UniProtKB/TrEMBL annotation:
Name the UniProt record assigns to this protein: DUF2798 domain-containing protein
Tree of life domain: Bacteria
Pfam families referenced in this protein's UniProt entry, alphabetically: DUF2798
Organism, as annotated: Agathobacter rectalis (strain ATCC 33656 / DSM 3377 / JCM 17463 / KCTC 5835 / VPI 0990) (Eubacterium rectale)
Keywords, comma-separated and alphabetical: Membrane, Transmembrane, Transmembrane helix
Entry keyword Transmembrane: yes
């Protein structure tokens, strides 16, 4: 886990890259009738704006909120580290999914139309399960593994 501001920034960038790309691919696949090879390239079109949005939201809103909520229910040194990791991950998903879905609604799914609320609700409902399982079972472990290799403690 990150120990200083530089490590926190690197960790956030890594996590945002992995989560955002996967979620864009997932949404394009749903919109086009399933996963196909072209989805990986098509996702690159939305990637830059969503990375910036994800980084800003995670750095200034979601990250601090997730930690604040986590440390109300777990205690470092008393509770197992995995409990802290899982709590931060779950709270991050809980806050980030609606915010990123709202941005996607505005930018890629009709914008400020009469159906904005319905479209937003649909995106949150379909994105939340993917974000939850992808974060807990793929992105989180993968990013923590790579991050651990980069910032090895001697």
């Amino acid at each position: 886990m990150p120990k200083n501001r530089l490590q926190e920034t690197v960790f956030t960038i890594m996590m945002v890259l992995v989560m955002v790309y996967a979620m864009i691919c997932y949404n394009i696949a749903l919109e086009t009738g399933g996963m196909k090879n072209f989805v990986f390239k098509a996702a690159l079109g939305e990637f830059p704006i969503m990375i910036v949005a994800g980084f800003i939201l995670d750095t200034f809103i979601t990250g601090p909120l997730a930690k604040k909520c986590t440390f109300k229910i777990v205690t470092p040194g008393k509770d197992r580290p995995i409990a802290i990791i899982l709590a931060i991950s779950v709270f991050s998903i809980w806050f980030m999914c609606p915010m990123m879905s709202f941005i996607a609604t505005i930018l890629f799914n009709g914008g400020f139309s009469s159906q904005i609320f319905a479209t937003f609700c649909e995106l949150v409902v379909r994105n939340f399960p993917m974000a939850f399982f992808w974060q807990l079972f793929v992105a989180g472990p993968l990013v923590r593994f790579i991050f651990g290799k980069i910032f090895r403690e001697n």
